[in-house]
Write a structure and sequence with these properties.
Number of helices: 5
Strand content: 5-15%
CATH topology: Aminopeptidase
CATH superfamily: Zn peptidases
Helix content: 25-40%
Strand order of the largest sheet: 1-2-4-3
Radius of gyration: 16 Å
Structural class: alpha+beta
Number of domains: 1
C-alpha cells in the first residue's frame, strides 16, 4: 500500500492505473446534489468575499488556522457536500472534494488555497478554489463525462503568513517537506 492509500496525500498523489468513466457524484443516498449553473462563480464569490476582510485596510487576513480560515474551510466543505462530492481532509490539513473514486487511477486535481498573507488581495488563492467549483458546475451543466477521478483542493497553510513557512500543505502532499 502506498502513502496515498495510507494517509491520502502524505507523500504522493493517487496511484497510477486505468479509471472507469465517472458519470456522477461519488456519494449516493442523502439529498440530491445541488449543482449551480449560470452565475455560479459570482454567487460563490459573494459568499466567500467578506470572510477575513479587515475593516480598516480593506485587505484580507485569512491566516492559516485562524477563525477566518476556519470559516473558509467550512465554506469549502459546504460547497463539496452541496454537489454530492466525497469530502475529506487529509492528515496534512488539505481539503479534498472528489468526483469519482480517488483510488481508481490518475486524477485531475485543481484548486488553490483559501488562506492569505497580511492584508492580501481578494483573489489570491480563493480565485483558484472558486473557479474550480464553477468549472465543475459548468461541465456538469453540459453533461460532461469524466474518464478519471477529479478533485478540487484547498491546500492548507500555503501563504505561510502565520508560521513563516510557505506552501506547507502542497509541499507535504508532494512529499517535499518532512
Amino acid at each position: 500500500m502506498d502513502a496515498w492509500a495510507r494517509g491520502r496525500g502524505a507523500a504522493a498523489g493517487p496511484p497510477r492505473g486505468a479509471a472507469a468513466p465517472v458519470r456522477g457524484p461519488a456519494l449516493s443516498g442523502g439529498p440530491a446534489p445541488q449543482w449551480r449553473t449560470g452565475d455560479s462563480f459570482l454567487s460563490m464569490w459573494r459568499e466567500l468575499a467578506p470572510v477575513g476582510r479587515h475593516p480598516d485596510s480593506g485587505g484580507y487576513r485569512r491566516y492559516a488556522w485562524s477563525a477566518a480560515d476556519l470559516e473558509c474551510r467550512a465554506w469549502f466543505r459546504a460547497q463539496a457536500e452541496a454537489r454530492g462530492l466525497a469530502y475529506e481532509t487529509d492528515r496534512n490539513g488539505n481539503q479534498w472534494a472528489w468526483l469519482g473514486d480517488p483510488l481508481a487511477g490518475d486524477a485531475v486535481v485543481t484548486g488553490s488555497h483559501l488562506d492569505s498573507v497580511p492584508d492580501g488581495g481578494a483573489f489570491d488563492g480563493p480565485l483558484g478554489v472558486v473557479s474550480s467549483f464553477a468549472a465543475l458546475d459548468e461541465l456538469h451543466s453540459r453533461g460532461a463525462e469524466f474518464t478519471r477521478p477529479l478533485a478540487i483542493t484547498n491546500f492548507g497553510d500555503e501563504e505561510g503568513a502565520r508560521f513563516g513557512l510557505a506552501c506547507v500543505g502542497s509541499r507535504l502532499a508532494a512529499g517535499q517537506l518532512t
